[in-house]
Design a protein that fits this description.
heterodimer, A: alpha+beta, six-stranded antiparallel sheet, globular, B: mainly beta, twelve-stranded antiparallel β-barrel, 12 strands
């Protein structure tokens, strides 16, 4: 084999079965399933909420998290409270999750709806998600402070914590 | 069929089979850059196998082309500590007076075994949790073939790095800096000559996720060599683009790295403002890795 051909050596080691397998993309809960999980038996009514520029600025300032969209995917629960669908960046794709807020703006529950990454999936663990229950907009929601990290899933943990903090700030400045 | 090609095809087939059989999500330590190292380490219990090829080209006269190929197996022992074993190969095409210190040298050698490296990397600060990522890196090496001339030798080196990384915009933009020191001790087989030198490098990389799974960036590198650990003999600056793609179980990175400036210029060759004794006019590197 001529020396020049060794340049292409790594390419022939591309694992073809991995190429043929669809990207690891799991839908764990549909919208309806997430709503019934967080607000079982309650009727949820969609509400269109578009943040003003001032609200967006305040939410970013308070939460320290970037706000990607001014349109909020929000449903109001019959018994009070809000159901919000949000997404945060994983390493390669977005993570879609739902936050249920009580009528007083504290976290009722969070659920991972879609997880499209090849690792860090431990954020779906019920024990990890339970750390957010009862948190309000004043909570730091920082890894290694009031939210325990999962080693090997730090990026996903941090981004979801940032996202929930942003949702709580959204309640403070736009929904209260 | 060349026996080395046969071995490579057999290895690739084994890799494909393993990839197909292995189930479940995997952890990954991606290299966003070809030359610059990021501060991340593999999660505990994870493994990654890499194949690298680096092509170094042109010395301003004659024909010069060299390839460095590495097979690396990496394991995460803890969430902060990983180690790798490298099997290295090297090949050269040299003719037409390409080497200024040995203009009569002609060499056309295919891939041969060049030695082994052991890499140790420890993460002190997490790029995702702390103000910035910080890792320390140590790599003892044994080499049998001189990088420039292709002469056979017994060479030992100890590469050490300080790795810093900072991410921005929800980790879509990554910026990394490496400081590298590498003393080498070589004994050439034909001449019995001994030499020692220190290689000093600073490199910077930036990488941006412009689409899901796709990252593009730039790498810059300053390299200098100090023979006998004394006065600098030569230095060069490199700057070039890179491209990175990550799928579920594998990723690749390609970097094109031309030299943009160097000193001293070597008389009698088309070197422009480049230093073409220790370094080449341009390099490119391709890495592909599979996680399991």
């Amino acid at each position: 084999m001529r020396p020049a051909q060794w340049t292409w050596l790594p390419i022939i080691c591309v694992p073809v079965p991995a190429l043929a397998v669809p990207a690891y993309a799991a839908t764990y809960l549909t919208l309806e399933q997430a709503q019934q999980t967080i607000f079982p038996g309650q009727k949820l009514t969609a509400a269109k909420v578009t943040l003003t520029s001032e609200q967006a600025r305040e939410i970013e300032r308070r939460s320290g998290a970037n706000l990607r969209h001014k349109e909020i995917h929000l449903w109001k629960a019959d018994g009070g409270g809000f159901f919000i669908v949000d997404e945060v960046l994983g390493k390669h794709e977005f993570i879609t999750y739902a936050v249920g807020l009580n009528a007083d703006g504290t976290v009722k529950q969070i659920e991972i709806m879609n997880y499209r990454e090849s690792y860090g999936y431990e954020v779906r663990n019920a024990g990890w998600r339970a750390q957010f229950v009862g948190k309000n907009a004043a909570a730091p929601l920082q890894l290694d402070k009031d939210i325990k990290n999962i080693s090997g899933a730090t990026l996903s943990c941090r981004h979801i914590a940032d996202g929930v903090r942003r949702v709580l700030a959204t309640y403070e400045f736009a929904l209260k | 069929m060349d026996h080395r090609l046969a071995f490579t095809l057999a290895f690739a087939a084994a890799l494909w089979s393993f990839a197909a059989l292995r189930a479940g999500p995997v952890e990954a330590d991606e290299n966003l850059w070809g030359y610059v190292y990021g501060a991340d380490t593999l999660p505990a219990g994870s493994n990654e196998i890499y194949l690298w090829t680096t092509s170094r080209n042109q010395k301003g006269k004659g024909n010069y082309r060299a390839w460095d190929t590495q097979l690396e197996l990496e394991h995460g022992f803890t969430d902060r500590f990983q180690a790798s074993l490298y099997l290295n190969g090297r090949s050269h095409q040299i003719s037409g007076g390409a080497l200024d210190e040995d203009p009569d040298r002609k060499l056309h050698r295919g891939l041969e075994w060049n030695g082994v490296n052991l890499e140790l990397k420890y993460n002190l600060l997490s790029v995702y949790k702390d103000l910035f990522g910080l890792s320390l890196y140590l790599e003892p090496e044994y080499q049998r073939i001189d990088k420039i001339s292709g002469e056979r030798m017994n060479g030992f080196a100890l590469e050490s790095k300080l790795i810093l990384q900072k991410n921005f915009f929800d980790d879509q933009l990554a910026l990394a800096y490496n400081l590298t020191l590498e003393p080498e001790w070589n004994k050439f087989k034909a001449s019995k000559e001994r030499e020692k030198e220190l290689e000093f490098e600073q490199s910077v990389g930036i990488s941006y996720r412009f689409l899901p799974h796709w990252f593009a960036g730039i790498e810059g590198r300053y390299a200098a060599v100090y023979p006998e650990f004394k006065h600098r003999e030569g230095n060069a600056y490199f700057l070039g683009p890179n491209l990175h793609y990550a799928a579920e179980r594998w990723w690749f990175t390609f970097t094109f790295l031309p030299q943009i400036s160097g000193n001293p210029r070597i008389a009698g060759r088309d070197s422009g403002n480049l230093h073409l004794h220790e370094y080449e006019r341009y390099e490119y590197r391709f890495k592909i890795a599979f996680n399991f």
